[in-house]
Amino acid sequence: MNTSTITQTATNTDTFPINGTDHVEFYVGNAKQTCLFYQHCFGFELIAYKGPETGSRDVVSYVLQQGKIRFVITAAYDPNHEISKHVALHGDGVKVLALWVDDVDDTYHKAIERGAESAFEPIQLWDDHGFVKMAAIKTYGDTIHTLVERSQYNGAFLPGYQPKRSLAPVRSLGFKYVDHCVGNVELGDMNKWVKFYEEVMGFKLLVTFDDKDISTDYTALMSKVVSNGNGYIKFPINEPAAGKKKSQIEEYLDFYKSAGVQHIAIATDDIVHTVESLRNNGIEFLYVPDNYYETVLERVGEIKEDIEDLKRMNILVDRDEEGYLLQIFTKPIQDRPTVFFEIIERHGAKSFGKGNFKALFEAIEREQELRGTL
Length: 374
Hints:
single chain, 374 residues, alpha+beta, 2,3-Dihydroxybiphenyl 1,2-Dioxygenase, domain 1, 9-stranded mixed beta sheet, 8-stranded mixed beta sheet
């Protein structure tokens, strides 16, 4: 495995400066119910709203926040609206991975000059709280990157949104920021999209996993991770690899009907508390057998956490040259076996849990077998 270390380079030295993740937007069939799900189950606070009461006659959006993470939950009223068509094709899923930048015009035109396809050209939105500039470029499947410049805005989220608060008490679960977002692409397309991020957005190849790294007796995949200059944005890109049975990537592509975002990894400083709270709120996780924990400390060495707590919560551990990490994966959070979440706590580690790949794949295969798709 070839690994390069993320370095905290000053943003102004990047060829495509990005300050971080601005927001992640989901297109869903019922935004109100999905909003309640993320409030109750994941501890996100409702902060802003757009709908008929604010003058939006065709689209409704709820903005949720926890730590530095913003999720936007969007639905449309008209079945012929592009959002409704997106949901009909893909099911509930991620449409927008929005990136916070200092200069939308510069970054957008730089991306177009380097070969990106435009989703929409730069626009400026105003209200009494200032203005926001936005533009967007296309990436894999129907996913887009919206570029957001908001230095001249102090409203709740964006012009057109009004502040709105959760009606019931919401208890934060300790989520801090988006650690990485993973995309699944069709066989043969991984290198195409890695090249896109390298040439268009100035990302660097961080790590490569081949089918020897990520495989079981039945299925396999290949993955490459790209990262922007300051290391705040990390995008693993997966594609299927040959195996005896249908891999998780193939299952995703079959149900999502195209390439798309497979999972979002969100960081916490206390994964035991976070996962215990999620379980108590009804979130289901992939299961790894107890015998995983019999030898894990021999592999990863000393950790601060009590191994019995990790075993009780079914949390996995891995180590690299920089430190160790703790991670766990939810089951899909909608009816289709597509989008899910990873909960991750890093103690210096910059990697993605290579030592857990086999155990995780076997856990996913057990779920696939139950669904009849393995």
